[in-house]
Amino acid sequence: MRKTLAIAAAAGVLVAGCAKSGTQGGNAGAPPKLTPASSIGAGEGQLSLVAWPGYAEDGSNDPKVDWVHPFENETGCKVNIKIGNTSDEMVQLMRTGQYDGVSASGDATLRLIYAGDVAPVNTALVPDYATIASFLKNRQWNSVDGQMYGIPHGWGANLLMYNTDVIKSPLDSWGAVFPGAPEYKGKLTAYDSPIYIADAALYLSKTRPELGIKNPYALTEEQLNASVDLLKAQHANIGEYWSDYTKAVQAFESGISVIGTSWQVIANMITSDNKVKISTVLPKEGSTGWSDTWMLAAKAAHPNCMYKWMGYITSPAVNAAVAEYFGEAPAQTKACDLTQDKNFCATFHATDAAYAERISYWTTPQKKCVDGSGDNCTAYSEWVDKWQQIKG
Amino acid sequence: MLSARMRGVLRAWTAVVLVFLYAPLLLVLLNAFNSSKTFAFPPSGFTLRWWSDAWSSAGMWRALGNSVLVGLCATAIALVLGTMIAFAVQRHQFFGHRTVSLLVVLPITLPGIVTGIALNATFTSALHVALGLATVIIAHATFCIVIVFNNIQARLRRLGASLEEASADLGASPWQTFRNITFPLTRGALLAGAILAFALSFDEIVVTTFTAGPTVQTLPIWIFGNLFRPNQAPVINVVAATLTVLAILPVWLAQRFGGDVAGGRV
Amino acid sequence: MAADQGLTRRPGNRARLAFLLVPPLAWLVVAYLGSLAVLLLSAFWTTDTFTGSVVRSFTGENVIRVLTDAVFRTTTLRTLGVALTVTLICALLAVPLGLYMAKVASLRARLALVVAVTTPLWASYLVKAYAWRMMLAPDGPLHWVSGHTPGYGIVATILTLCYLWLPYMVLPVFAAFDRVPDELIDASSDLGASDAGTLRRVVGPLVLPGIVAGSIFTFSLSLGDYIAVTIVGGKTQMLGNLIYGQLVTANNQPLAAALSLIPLVAIVLYLLAMRRSGALEQL
Known about the structure:
The complex is a heterotrimer of chains A (about 400), B (about 270) and C (about 280).
Chain A: H1 2-19, E1 46-51, H2 68-75, E2 78-83, H3 87-95, E3 101-104, H4 106-115, E4 118-119, E5 143-144, E6 147-148, E7 151-157, E8 159-163, E9 188-191, H5 197-207, H6 221-235, E10 238-242, H7 245-253, E11 259-262, H8 264-273, E12 278-281, E13 288-297, H9 303-313, H10 316-326, E14 329-330, H11 344-347, H12 353-357, E15 360-361, H13 380-390
Parallel strand pairs in A: 1-2, 1-3, 9-10, 9-11, 13-15
Antiparallel strand pairs in A: 3-13, 4-13, 5-6, 7-13, 7-14, 8-11, 8-12
Chain B: H1 4-31, H2 49-55, H3 58-91, H4 97-109, H5 112-126, H6 133-159, H7 162-169, H8 174-203, H9 206-211, H10 219-226, H11 233-257
Helix pairs in contact in B: 1-11, 2-11, 3-6, 3-8, 3-10, 4-6, 6-8, 7-8, 8-11
Chain C: H1 14-42, E1 46-47, E2 54-55, H2 61-68, H3 70-104, H4 107-118, H5 125-135, H6 141-146, H7 154-179, H8 182-190, H9 195-224, H10 227-232, H11 239-249, H12 253-275
Antiparallel strand pairs in C: 1-2
């Protein structure tokens, strides 16, 4: 009797669930039809964001670094920030429908667009949109058929970082971590996401041209396997992988890691703590990187606050502050006049379209090759499986 | 009873295990005063700075408040439901009482990640309920029921039903029997169960991660988000050291009045 | 020490039984069993490969993958190995301690020891794991004291998990020792058995259910752990990491559900097997 009750109760729950069909999402055919807003209304009083570390600082890391509270005072939108450590986490968080916006990199944007988790944006509603770098507008990762799905935030490259007390001579090649010299065995670190496979592929595209890798995100089965083999060799030298950037900071400062992939914000934090000496370099083989876009959730509970945020964060003064804190090129060209370091934009090539094209921005690998070279590439789900195999 | 040599061996072993248990906690306490942000060892200096930082950390207090609220609610629900099941199983005969015992124990024996994903899938995919404080309380109550159940059941088993039967024979109604006989005798077990259920809920991270929404931060979630942050990690040590020291009192209370000295898993 | 009064049951009032039983069971069945059923069902669904949305069409491919994929097999074996090792070490540490607390320590010392063993449970799990990260750091206390540290990896993981779950093993073991009447031990030594013999042949079998009860927790807690591994395990990957990775990184909730069937089945089998040992009464 009790067992029947149990089964009946469970079945009831399931029937309730199955009655609503989940978003099936398109294939790379067309994203769901959604209309962009035509005007911004009054703020709703709240805003829930998913952000990369360093993008939405509220003073809790460093009391002097805070652009969230001024926004709250200005608009009355109280901000809740959830830090996403990887694009995968961000996609999953946006899927819950409980956030209003996200700072998505190119390997998250298309997944979000085609699943209907983000809405097209009306760029006319963002005051400083006109002066955003033109090479960031209407790109393959942030727009579909000329309709923008977000507001560009900034871009940058993944860097090779190393402890200069341990590694005395300057490095200039990813060869230092692929697969890694024996003297660093156990002290190598790498980014804990399947997208890191592209870093290996990029290295191989320069060092093993016979593989024919043109775009590190458009890999055939054979090219993927070659990259995976390189990463398996690297795995033997790895001490820890990192996805939480503060864990990378701690690992370098305590000597657990001495060399590996890093972000400028990590290097900046370590330098200001002054416990160990590190150096960063963009190696000669080039680098993977990211180009981030603020996107509005399709089912946002607070869309007006999100539009206000997008306008705020891309305004010259704030964009300059974020870019300098994180260590990336700001999307807003007017921000270059407002950075504290007058050479900041020059150092980061912020207005140099040609330089920007040389970075291999994170893009979601798909079966239909992202560089248009055919239909036989490997999809991200295969990359995920390979990544778990690499880690053993 | 046992030979002196055996006693000596056991005493030494006990000392070793106690050192093992407390060395990391002493390190935590030490680092709460360590002036080095990266916990250099030996400590580079003594400072009370982290204590004032902890005191003024709004995020920490908010998270602490949430944890206390969730703990109290979950414990309250668990007290009621756990006691009911314990009485049902111990004082009545019915078909399937073994299965019921197994079912009650299940939430705590299955790995947290399984329970977490299951509840998350149910809340988000099947029921389309927004995750928040309520979902966390439901999740916590579910595995707190076990703790209360264990404690009450153990106590009921020791008491036997003879006193209750005598009371019924003398004409008392079931409610009178419960109020005047059973409750005073099981009060200690209820207290012990409540304290231990609260402790479990207070420190729970895995299931909470999967059932808390974006705006809810319990203390473990707050700690997890700040564990590696250079400015926050020392504050975490302060909080942990304080909680551990403060916990000695309720733990002692639970053991003193719980009746059987340590019946079962906490 | 009073022996158990034994289970006394009366064929009670059915209405009262229903009142006592239905609300909690309804809660457990709906909230818990229902969730497990949803999990079980979702293991047979699949995801759209591009967007990652769940597609609710029945397929056995995830379960088959879980059973055949090499990395899942390796990781499962590694995790089972770690869980068993942790259980054995905890039992080894807990048994003499439990014996001391129950049979050698004075009454006051016994209470103090129980409090001493239970208090670490109130220190945050995360903080304890992080404390071990500090202890085992290249320039941390362990290295300072002994000149050597295992670093972060499987050894560190086992060490930390043992530390975290030890109280859960000590308490049931102590309770079990406590229940053994002193007279039994006295009688055994009067009959000429040595201490070791007494412990092995008289006390041992009586204490075994307590050890098994503790082992259920150390085993299950280690089987699903993924946080302590991330903190002290270096590049080690355990079953919990795989499940979490498939859920969050791959957005593949059905595969994560299929993977979580492994610890689920393992624990349920273990519980069913241990029913007869009477350990479940001692949890």
